[in-house]
């Protein structure tokens, strides 16, 4: 390989693809279409220069492009992981999940249908085998979203349409390449032509690829915090990941590398923003955008350069076969769109897709570089018959050119014809309100600039007048707009404040006042709340907000581990995580309420602003209640975390001051570096969260009980050996009515509620419940729930008997309590008495709590 020649060839292509961008805008065509045309032109010119007898001057450079020193496998290994990974990084995965069913059908099912349609349609008209026809079907089933999405963005097509096409293409490539690999194995004799075997291989390829992608993504997620302050290292790791999972999946595991890259990319998309700083995430995406531009443009040009080589000796029979491919591919796509999707939507298995959307998706199935590269791979395989090689090369290349030159040049007109380039009704109705709000902000900024720069009134009025007129016109239009219902305005507002809430959390992460783990946890909850609001408005938002305060399954499991295995550290860590998350959430909600009161009314109206403020106030109240419940149980630990948060905020302000002084040249680089280093050291200390002590030492809890308060230390120690500590969180169902009593409970701290039908009585520190069932042998007569965080001591039936047998006084005391409670339960109090009992704290003898 002539290194200087290859270098200058690649550099020349980079110049070409850079100049194509403005040229495509001027010609109003998709860049991919122009890239294909230029690539074919370069290929034709290079072929002519290499083989013409008129000159030998350009033979070296022409030979480079005619016989480029990269085969199809090298092109896929170099460019495909980059393209797939960058696409997944930019996807709105949460919004795309709403159309997951549609995307799956359009990607996976459509690939199988298209392969079958094309293969079966071609088979009667050609001498090659059915497997070869199916192989061609799998090759041309891959779609390229680059050109389509570029057209969508250029004319302002609906965002959902773009998500559908991008999502389809992402999984489409994975399914098509997996199917291509299986059929290629059958064609070359390395695999059996058995439907069941093929299906198993297909599922294995998909599932194995997802597993490898998930593992790779998880590894990167755990490594990224180690290089949190080194964004160049973060980008480098992100570039290494797609190559590693792709090669491991394809070469070592024998599964789909495409699926592995997609799986890893989606995981990084969802979790990555909380594992690095917001500035670092922005930088990473900016770098990847540049990488993807190079990769997508180069693979398109390189594949297009090979077109003349692939289209050798094209005849009329090939044109007929190409027409069959075009018609059958359209028919397969139409069957999925117009026959299968409506049925699935009627069964509530997928989201409905409108007829205009279907038409655009049908006509937008353009093919590109991946199709050409797979076709090139067939021509390079010596195990494949030359007739099959030519068959695949000619038809795949011809189909790519047809879709680019026909679909690509007419898609924009179709979108305009279907009026999909217009604003959605809600956006159109909001236009005047957004304009009025933005233009008034501009006028205020202009007024400040006039004062600051001492501009004369005449020029100032000349600049302000057009904005004043436009703002007045927009305000008048907004005042008369009745196109948006208040319900829709509330939904729009809830989605907007969810997005703003996410930004506030990311700002705290950037400012280092929130830990990565806490921010990640909170961002996941905010994402779910926003998704539910988008789907169901106010009701679903409130439901999701309440659910975000519930205790997760891991908390229940940690309680079980503490109760059964006496291991407390996991439970203590989860409780500390909960307090830190609730603290950050309350701070964020305070900021969000202020934002809502200031920004929402001008856009959505004062009534909607009041509703949203009320919703957020209720969220803040519920969050504060949950936070105070933890603070009440662990006040010292809560104070230490509050102090830690303030310390982090102070360190951020200190760092900002040093940075400001340095930017103003008031301090030198050496002093700034020294001061910054001291802040970093202090921050490292502040980042270490103190450990939470659950206070579950049995002997200490036993000594706190008034029942045993006056006993000597050795007697308390003996009793404590019979007790089992139990930790309860708010809402825990401790005792169920009707079940057989097997233990008595002593409350060391916290409070519980006893429900005996018409009574709800609170028990607090020093009291016990569950003892009657142990004395009488009868079933439980009440339900008991934890009102807050509780430290309980549990005494089993056998240990209860041991304890009472050794201490007749204690036995008599507990028996007296049981008799008095049974007597009270036998004569229910009137409403006033029940209310009085509920409002007093241990001033009257509680009823039985069994």
UniProtKB/TrEMBL annotation:
Its membrane topology: Multi-pass membrane protein
InterPro entries, sorted = Cation/H_exchanger_CPA1, Cation/H_exchanger_TM, cNMP-bd_CS, cNMP-bd_dom, cNMP-bd_dom_sf, RmlC-like_jellyroll
Q: Where are the transmembrane segments?
A: 6-24, 33-51, 74-91, 103-122, 128-152, 173-193, 199-223, 243-271, 291-312, 319-345, 357-379, 391-410
Q: Which CDD domains match?
A: CAP_ED (cd00038)
UniProt keyword Cell membrane present: yes
Give GO terms for biological process.
regulation of intracellular pH; sodium ion import across plasma membrane
Q: List GO molecular-function terms, semicolon-separated.
A: potassium:proton antiporter activity; sodium:proton antiporter activity
Question: Where is the Cyclic nucleotide-binding domain positioned along the sequence?
Answer: 707-803
Keywords, alphabetical: Cell membrane, Ion transport, Membrane, Sodium, Sodium transport, Transmembrane, Transmembrane helix, Transport
One GO cellular component, as annotated: plasma membrane
Q: Where is the stretch described as Disordered?
A: 819-850
Q: Does the keyword Secreted apply?
A: no
Query: What is this protein identified as?
Result: Cation:proton antiporter
């Amino acid at each position: 390989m002539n290194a200087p020649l290859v270098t200058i060839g690649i550099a020349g292509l980079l110049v070409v693809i850079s100049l194509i961008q403005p040229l495509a805008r001027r010609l109003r065509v998709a860049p991919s279409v122009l890239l294909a045309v230029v690539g074919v032109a370069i290929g034709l010119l290079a072929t002519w220069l290499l083989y013409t007898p008129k000159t030998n001057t350009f033979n070296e450079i022409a030979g480079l492009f005619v016989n480029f020193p990269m085969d199809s496998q090298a092109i896929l290994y170099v460019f495909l992981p980059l393209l797939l990974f960058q696409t997944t990084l930019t996807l709105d995965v949460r919004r795309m999940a709403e159309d997951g069913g549609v995307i799956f059908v359009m990607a996976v099912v459509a690939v199988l249908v298209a392969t079958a349609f094309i293969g079966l349609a071609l088979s009667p008209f050609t001498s090659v085998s059915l497997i070869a026809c199916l192989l061609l079907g799998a090759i041309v089933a891959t779609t390229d979203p680059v050109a389509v999405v570029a057209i969508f963005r250029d004319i302002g097509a609906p965002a959902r349409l773009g998500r559908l096409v991008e999502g389809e293409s992402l999984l489409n490539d994975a399914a098509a390449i997996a199917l291509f690999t299986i059929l290629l194995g059958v064609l070359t004799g390395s695999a059996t032509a058995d439907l069941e075997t093929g299906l198993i291989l297909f599922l294995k390829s998909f599932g194995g690829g997802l597993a490898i992608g998930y593992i790779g993504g998880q590894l990167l997620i755990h490594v990224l915090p180690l290089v949190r302050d080194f964004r160049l290292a973060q980008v480098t790791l992100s570039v290494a990941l797609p190559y590693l999972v792709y090669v491991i999946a394809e070469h070592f595991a024998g599964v789909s590398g495409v699926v592995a890259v997609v799986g890893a990319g989606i995981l990084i998309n969802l979790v990555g923003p909380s594992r690095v700083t917001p500035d670092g995430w922005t930088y990473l995406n900016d770098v990847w955008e540049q990488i993807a531009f190079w990769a997508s443009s180069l693979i398109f040009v390189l594949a297009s350069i090979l077109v003349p080589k692939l289209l050798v000796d094209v005849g009329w029979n090939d044109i007929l076969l190409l027409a069959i491919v075009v018609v059958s591919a359209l028919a397969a796509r139409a069957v999925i769109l117009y026959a299968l999707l409506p049925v699935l939507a009627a069964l509530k298995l997928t989201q409905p897709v409108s007829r205009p959307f279907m038409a655009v998706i049908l006509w937008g199935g353009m093919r590109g570089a991946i199709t050409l590269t797979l076709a090139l791979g067939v021509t390079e395989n010596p195990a494949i018959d030359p007739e099959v090689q030519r068959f695949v090369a000619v038809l795949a290349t011809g189909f790519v050119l047809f879709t680019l030159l026909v679909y690509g040049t007419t898609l924009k007109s179709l979108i305009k014809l279907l009026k999909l380039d217009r604003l959605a009704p809600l956006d159109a109705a909001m236009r005047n309100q957004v304009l009025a709000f933005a233009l008034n902000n501009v006028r205020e900024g202009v007024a400040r600039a006039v004062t600051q720069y001492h501009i004369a009134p005449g020029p100032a009025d000349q600049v302000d007048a057009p904005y004043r007129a436009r703002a007045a016109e927009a305000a008048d239009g907004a005042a008369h707009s009745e196109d948006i219902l208040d319900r829709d305005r509330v939904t729009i507002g809830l989605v907007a404040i969810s997005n703003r809430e996410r930004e506030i959390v990311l700002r705290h992460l950037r400012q280092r006042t929130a830990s990565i783990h806490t921010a990640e946890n909170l961002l996941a909850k905010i994402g779910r709340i926003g998704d539910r609001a988008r789907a169901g408005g106010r009701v679903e938002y409130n439901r999701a907000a309440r659910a975000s305060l519930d205790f997760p399954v891991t908390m229940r499991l940690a309680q079980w581990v503490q109760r059964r295995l006496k291991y407390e550290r996991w439970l203590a860590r989860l409780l500390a995580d909960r307090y830190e998350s609730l603290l950050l959430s309350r701070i964020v909600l305070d900021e969000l309420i202020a934002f809502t009161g200031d920004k929402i009314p001008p856009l959505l109206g004062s009534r909607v602003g009041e509703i949203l403020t009320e919703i957020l106030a209720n969220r803040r109240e519920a969050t504060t209640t949950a936070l105070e419940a933890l603070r009440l149980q662990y006040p010292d630990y809560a104070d230490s975390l509050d102090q830690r948060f303030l310390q982090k905020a102070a360190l951020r302000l200190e760092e900002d001051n040093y940075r400001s002084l340095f930017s103003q040249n008031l301090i030198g680089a050496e002093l700034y570096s020294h001061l910054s280093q001291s802040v970093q050291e202090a921050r490292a200390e502040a980042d270490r969260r103190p450990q939470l002590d659950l206070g579950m030492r049995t002997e200490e809890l036993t000594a706190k009980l008034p029942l045993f308060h006056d006993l000597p230390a050795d007697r308390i120690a003996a009793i404590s050996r019979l007790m089992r500590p139990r930790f309860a969180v708010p809402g825990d169902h401790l005792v169920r009515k009707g079940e057989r009593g097997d233990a008595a409970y002593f409350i060391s701290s916290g409070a519980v509620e006893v429900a005996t039908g018409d009574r709800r009585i609170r028990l607090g520190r020093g009291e016990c419940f569950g003892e009657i069932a142990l004395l009488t042998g009868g079933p439980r007569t009440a339900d008991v729930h934890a009102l807050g965080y509780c430290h309980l001591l549990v005494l089993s039936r056998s240990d209860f008997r041991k304890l009472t047998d050794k201490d007749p006084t204690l036995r008599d005391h507990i028996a007296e309590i049981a008799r008095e409670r049974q007597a009270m339960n036998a004569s229910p109090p009137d409403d006033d008495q029940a209310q009085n009992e509920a409002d007093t704290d241990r001033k009257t003898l509680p009823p039985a709590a069994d």
